[in-house]
Specification:
heterodimer; A: 403 residues; mainly beta; Immunoglobulin-like; six-stranded mixed sheet; five-stranded mixed sheet; 2 helices; 29 strands; 6% helix; 47% strand; B: 582 residues; mainly alpha; Cytochrome C Oxidase, Chain A; 2 domains; 70% helix; globular
Chain lengths: 403, 582
C-alpha cells in the first residue's frame, strides 16, 4: 500500500469486499430455491381444478371447511383458481413437507392475486412426486395454511377421514434390494387412511428409483415414482387412502418387489395343514367356511400337522383355479410353520386350498360387505385369533384399526 | 467416540448434517486462527519490527522512538500500520476498515432501495431483504460508526495530547483485530435479526427465523463488544494518564473531550447487553433466560440500555470533529470552549437515561413513559447548546472558507437540526404511537447518520487526506461533487421517508402498499444518488493518490487543537488550515 498505488489498492479491496458481501447476502441461508416442476406438454395423467378463496382468516373462510386438505393423484396438473375475498394482499405459496418453510415456490404473488375483492387469478402446477405439501400465504402464514396430499393411488377420491393413522417404516437399500431389519422386500400391512412415513437409507451410494404400482405384481406401464434417490437418506410421506394391494420395487431390478397391503381390518388366524383336510384335528371341523368382511387382510399362520408338504393357495371364486390363485404360505417337514397374507378385496366366495392335496384340503372364504365386524368366523365354529400387535416378518406394526 | 454433537446436544437446536460439519470446520479454522493470531502477536510483528526501526533511527528503546518519531507526527498509510503497535497506526487501521465497511453496508442499503421499485418484492425476496437490512444496520453501527469514532480518536489523540508515552499498543491492536473478527462474523452469519437481536427470533435458528447462522452474529457482536471495551479502556488510560503534563484537563481539545465522553458511554452502557448476549447464547443450549414472554421484554431493556448510547456514540465524537474543523476555516476560536464541553457532557449523562423512549409502546407504564419522555425532551438542551456554539462560531467569524470539509460541516449542522427536531417529536408518547415502526424513524436517524456521522467522517478524511497520502491533494471538484450528491441524495431520501412515514409507511419490510409508491420512488432516487456519490469518492481516492506529492503532510487539523490556552494551537488556529485540496 506504499506510495501512489495505495489509493488504488484500497479501492480494489473495497470493491472486492463489496462483491463478496453482495454474493453472501444474495445467497443467505434463509433462502433455498424450490420450484414445482414445469407443466409438461405430454405425459400428464390427470387434470384437476381447485378453487380456493383467499381470506386473511384462512383459505376458504366462509366457504365450507377452512384451510381444506387437498388430495391430488400423482402426475396431476392442478389448475389453482384463487379468488380474492377480503381486500388484503395474499400469496399462494407451496412447499414440500407438512409445515411452512422458506424452501418454497410462490405460485401466485400479491401482485397477481391483487387486493381487489372478487378478483380471480389462476395458475397451473404440476405435481410429479408423492408426498405431503403445504400451501399457504406468506402474508398470513399463521391463519392461511393447509396441506396437499399427493397420492400414489391412481383413482382420486377424497376420503372422509383424515390421515389419523401414522406409521413409520425404515427401508434400507442394499445393492438393488430393499430390506428392513434384514428382511428382503418386507411386506408392509397398514390400515387404510394411513400416512406412511418412509425413510430410505442408501447404504451404498448407488442411484435408484423407488416406484409403486397398484395390484399384486410389478406394473411397469402404470406406476408412480415415489422417490428418485440421489442422497444417502431420503424421507418421503406416502398417503394411502383406499383398501388395496400395492407393490413397491426398485427400477434397477423389477424382478424383485415388496407388497403393501392397505386394509380396512386385519385378523390373524391359524390354519392346521393335514392331508385329510384343513383343521382336520381342530374343533372347528375339517375345511371350515371362513366368514369375513370385505377389505379384511388375513394373516394366515400355516402349521404343519403331518410332516408332509403343504402350500396354501387362495383364489377368487367357489372352485380351485390355479391360474388366478396366489400362494400365501407353505410348510414342509423342515419348516413347520409359515405365515402369509391375503387381502380379500371384493365380496363373494374365495377358495382356499392345498396345492399338494387339492382333493381333500379345500374350503371356502365367504366375504361379505358387513362393515360391523372386523373379525373372522368359521363355520361350523370359531377359532379366531385377533391381535392388536402383529409381527410382520420382523417389523412390529401397531394395528390401530382394530382397537 | 467423542462427539461435539452429543456434548452440546447440537441436534436439538437444529444443527445437523451439513451444519454440524460446518460447525466442526469452524471450530478447526477457529483454532488455526487463534494460533496464527498468537504468532502475529508474539513472533512476527510489531516489537521486532519497531525495534529494528528504532535502532536504525538511533534509539535504544522502541517506546522512546514511538513517542519522538511516531506518536504525535503525521502518519502515512502503508502496510506497516499492521505491524506497528502505536496509536496512530491502529487509528489508521480503524479509519480505513471503517470506510471499507461503510462501502459494504452502504451498498446493501442501495440494493435495498433499488429492490423496492415495486410494491411487491421483485428483485430480491423478503428473506434476502431481511438479511440485507440486518447487515446494513449492524455493520454500519458497529463497524463504520465505532470504527470511525475510535479510529479518529486513536489517530488524533496522540497529537492533541502530546503523549508522553504510547504503550497501550498491544491491547489496542488486539481490540482492533477482535473487532474486525466480530464484524466479519456478522457479515458471514447473514442473520435476519434486525440490529436488536431480539429473542425469540434470535433463538430460532431456522430458515424462516433468524437464519441458520444467527448464533454467529451473536458471537460476532460479543467479540465487537470485547474489542470496544479494550479500546475504550485504552483511550481512557491514554487521556487520563499518558497525556503530556503540559496539557491540563481544561486545556484538552474539544475532540478529546468528545472521545472521552464516547468511551465512557461505551464502558458504562455496553456491559448489560454483553451479559444479555451471553445469556442469549446460553439459551441456544439450555433455553432458560429469554424463552418466555416477560423475559423477552427484559432483553429489549438490556439492549436499549446500550442501544441508545450507541446512537449517541455515532454523534458525539463527530461533534468534536466539527469543533476541530470550524476554527480551521473561520480563522477564529470556538465561540465557547466551556459550553462545548458541558454540552457534550450533558449529552453523555442524558444518553444513559432515555433508552426507554425506544420502548414507549411496549407497556412500560405511564410513570416510566413520562420519565423517559421528559428526559428525551431534556436532550434538546445540550443539543441546542452545541448547535448554537457552532452557529456562534460561524457568526463571529470574519470570513468563512467554503472548502469541502467545511461544506460537509455546514450540511451536517443543518441535517442535525432537522434530524434532531424529528427525533424530539418522536419522544412525545402519543406521536410515537403514531409513527412507531414507520419510515419516519428511518428518516429521522438517517438525517443524523448521513449528515453528522458519515458527512463529518468524510470531512475529517478530506482534512487528513494529504497526511494519509504523504502529501497528495484530492481533486476538489470531484470532492465537491461527492459532497453535493451525498447531501442532495440524503435530503431526498430522508425527506421522502419522513413524509411517507408520517403518513404511515411501515419500515423494515420488503414491500409497501401502492399508496406509498411516490415516497418510495423518491427515496430510491435519493439512495441511488448517494451510491453514485460514494463511487465518485472512491474514484477520487484512487486517482488523487496516483499523482505526485505536492503539499506538506503537516496538518493543522491534526497538530492544532481547540484547547483554550495552548499557545501552539492558538497560533495554528489563526493560520487558515490547508484544506487538502488544491
Amino acid at each position: 500500500m506504499e506510495g501512489n498505488k495505495a489509493g488504488v489498492v484500497f479501492v480494489v479491496i473495497v470493491l472486492i469486499m463489496v462483491g463478496i458481501g453482495f454474493t453472501l447476502m444474495l445467497n443467505p441461508p434463509t433462502v433455498k430455491s424450490f420450484s414445482l416442476p414445469p407443466v409438461p406438454s405430454k405425459g400428464v395423467k390427470h387434470y384437476q381444478n381447485i378453487t380456493i378463496y383467499a381470506d386473511a382468516n384462512g383459505w376458504d373462510y366462509n366457504h365450507g371447511t377452512v384451510n381444506p386438505t387437498l388430495y391430488i393423484a400423482n402426475n396431476t396438473v392442478v389448475t389453482f383458481t384463487v379468488i380474492e375475498e377480503d381486500g388484503e394482499p395474499h400469496t399462494l405459496t407451496i412447499n414440500p413437507g407438512s409445515s411452512e418453510t422458506s424452501y418454497q415456490d410462490t405460485l401466485l404473488s400479491t401482485a397477481q392475486i391483487t387486493t381487489i375483492p372478487g378478483h380471480v387469478s389462476t395458475t397451473k402446477a404440476y405435481f410429479d412426486s408423492i408426498g405431503v405439501y403445504t400451501y399457504w400465504c406468506t402474508v398470513h402464514p399463521e391463519t392461511m395454511v393447509g396441506l396437499i396430499y399427493v397420492n400414489a393411488t391412481v383413482n382420486v377420491t377424497v376420503p372422509t377421514a383424515h390421515y389419523a393413522n401414522y406409521s413409520n417404516q425404515t427401508l434400507n437399500l442394499l445393492k438393488n434390494n430393499l430390506t428392513a431389519n434384514g428382511v428382503l422386500y418386507p411386506t408392509i400391512a397398514l390400515p387404510s387412511s394411513t400416512l406412511l412415513n418412509l425413510t430410505i437409507k442408501d447404504t451404498t451410494s448407488s442411484t435408484y428409483v423407488l416406484r409403486i404400482s397398484s395390484g399384486s405384481k410389478v406394473d411397469t406401464s402404470n406406476y408412480s415414482t415415489i422417490i428418485n434417490v440421489t442422497n444417502k437418506t431420503s424421507k418421503v410421506s406416502i398417503p394411502f387412502n383406499q383398501t388395496g394391494q400395492y407393490v413397491y420395487w426398485n427400477s434397477n431390478n423389477t424382478s424383485r418387489f415388496g407388497t403393501i397391503y392397505i386394509y380396512t381390518s386385519l385378523v390373524n388366524t391359524s390354519l392346521y395343514a393335514d392331508f385329510n383336510g384343513w383343521n382336520y384335528s381342530q374343533s372347528s371341523g375339517v375345511n371350515p367356511t371362513i366368514s369375513i368382511s370385505q377389505g379384511t387382510l388375513v394373516n394366515f399362520t400355516l402349521i404343519d400337522e403331518d410332516n408332509l408338504t403343504h402350500a396354501l393357495e387362495i383364489n377368487p371364486g367357489s372352485s380351485e383355479n390355479s391360474s388366478t390363485s396366489i400362494s400365501v404360505a407353505s410348510v414342509s417337514p423342515t419348516v413347520k410353520t409359515s405365515q402369509g397374507y391375503y387381502l380379500f378385496m371384493s365380496t363373494g366366495n374365495y377358495t382356499y386350498w392345498d396345492l399338494y392335496h387339492p382333493s381333500t384340503a379345500v374350503g371356502i372364504v365367504n366375504v361379505t360387505n358387513s362393515s360391523s365386524s372386523a373379525s373372522i368366523s368359521y363355520t361350523p365354529s370359531s377359532v379366531s385369533d385377533p391381535g392388536n400387535y402383529i409381527s410382520l416378518l420382523g417389523i412390529q406394526t401397531r394395528d390401530e384399526h382394530n382397537q | 467416540m467423542f462427539s461435539f454433537g452429543s456434548l452440546f446436544s447440537l441436534a436439538s437446536i437444529g444443527l445437523t448434517g451439513t451444519n454440524l460439519n460446518l460447525l466442526y470446520i469452524s471450530i478447526i479454522l477457529g483454532i488455526i486462527g487463534i494460533v496464527l493470531f498468537y504468532f502475529y502477536f508474539r513472533i512476527v510483528p510489531a516489537k521486532e519490527y519497531l525495534h529494528e526501526e528504532a535502532e536504525a533511527a538511533g534509539y535504544e528503546r522502541s517506546n522512546e522512538y514511538v513517542r519522538d518519531k511516531l506518536s504525535d507526527k503525521p502518519r502515512e498509510l502503508s502496510w506497516k500500520i499492521f505491524l506497528y503497535d502505536d496509536s496512530k497506526s491502529i487509528g489508521l487501521r480503524y479509519i480505513f476498515t471503517s470506510i471499507l465497511f461503510l462501502c459494504i453496508a452502504g451498498s446493501f442499503g442501495v440494493l435495498m432501495r433499488v429492490s423496492l421499485t415495486e410494491p411487491s418484492p421483485t428483485i430480491i425476496g423478503p428473506a434476502q431483504y431481511n438479511v440485507l437490512m440486518t447487515e446494513h444496520a449492524t455493520l454500519m453501527i458497529y463497524m463504520f460508526v465505532l470504527g470511525a469514532a475510535l479510529g479518529l480518536g486513536f489517530y488524533l489523540l496522540p497529537s492533541h495530547l502530546k503523549l508522553k508515552k504510547d504503550t497501550m499498543g498491544v491491547y489496542t491492536s488486539f481490540a482492533y483485530w477482535i473487532w474486525l473478527a466480530g464484524g466479519l462474523f456478522i457479515l458471514i452469519s447473514r442473520a435476519a435479526l434486525r440490529w436488536y437481536f431480539y429473542p425469540p427470533l434470535s433463538l430460532e435458528l431456522t430458515q424462516v427465523g433468524g437464519g441458520e447462522f444467527a448464533w454467529l452474529a451473536v458471537l460476532g457482536l460479543e467479540l465487537i463488544f470485547i474489542g470496544l471495551m479494550v479500546a475504550s479502556v485504552s483511550i481512557i488510560k491514554i487521556i487520563a494518564f499518558d497525556r503530556s503534563p503540559d496539557i491540563k484537563l481544561n486545556q484538552m481539545s474539544l475532540f478529546t473531550w468528545s472521545i472521552l465522553f464516547t468511551v465512557i458511554m461505551g464502558v458504562t452502557s455496553a456491559p448489560p447487553l454483553m451479559v444479555g448476549l451471553g445469556m442469549l447464547f446460553y439459551d441456544y443450549f439450555n433455553p432458560i433466560f429469554f424463552i418466555t414472554g416477560t423475559n423477552t421484554l427484559l432483553f429489549t431493556i438490556l439492549f436499549w440500555f446500550w442501544g441508545h448510547p450507541i446512537v449517541y456514540m455515532a454523534v458525539i465524537p463527530f461533534f468534536g470533529i466539527i469543533y476541530e474543523i470550524l476554527p480551521k476555516f473561520t480563522g477564529s476560536k470556538v465561540y465557547s470552549y466551556n459550553s462545548g464541553v458541558w454540552g457534550l457532557g450533558l449529552l453523555l449523562i442524558l444518553s444513559e437515561l432515555v433508552w426507554g423512549h425506544h420502548l414507549l409502546n411496549s407497556g412500560l407504564g405511564i410513570e416510566w413513559i413520562t420519565f423517559f419522555t421528559t428526559m428525551s425532551f431534556l436532550v434538546v438542551i445540550p443539543s441546542a447548546i452545541t448547535v448554537f456554539n457552532f452557529i456562534a462560531t460561524l457568526w463571529t467569524a470574519k470570513s468563512i472558507r467554503m472548502t469541502v470539509p467545511m461544506l460537509f460541516v455546514l450540511n451536517g449542522i443543518v441535517d442535525f437540526i432537522i434530524g434532531g427536531i424529528t427525533g424530539v417529536m418522536q419522544s412525545f408518547a402519543p406521536f410515537n404511537e403514531q409513527v412507531h415502526g414507520t419510515y419516519w424513524v428511518t428518516g429521522h436517524f438517517h438525517f443524523i447518520f448521513i449528515g453528522i456521522t458519515m458527512g463529518i467522517s468524510f470531512a475529517a478524511f478530506y482534512m487528513l487526506f494529504p497526511t494519509f497520502t504523504g502529501g497528495r491533494k484530492y481533486n476538489v471538484s470531484l470532492a465537491r461533487w461527492h459532497f453535493g450528491l451525498t447531501a442532495l441524495g440524503s435530503y431526498i431520501m430522508a425527506f421522502a421517508w419522513s413524509v411517507g412515514g408520517f403518513l404511515g409507511m411501515p419500515r423494515a419490510v420488503a414491500g409497501y402498499f401502492g399508496f406509498f409508491q411516490g415516497y418510495q420512488d423518491a427515496s430510491i432516487i435519493g439512495g441511488v444518488i448517494i451510491g453514485i456519490a460514494q463511487v465518485i469518492f472512491l474514484y477520487n481516492i484512487a486517482v488523487s493518490w496516483l499523482k505526485a506529492p505536492s503539499t506538506s503532510t503537516d496538518n493543522a487539523f491534526e497538530q492544532g487543537n481547540t484547547g483554550p490556552t495552548d499557545s501552539h494551537s492558538a497560533e495554528l488556529n489563526k493560520v487558515p488550515a490547508v484544506s487538502g485540496g488544491k
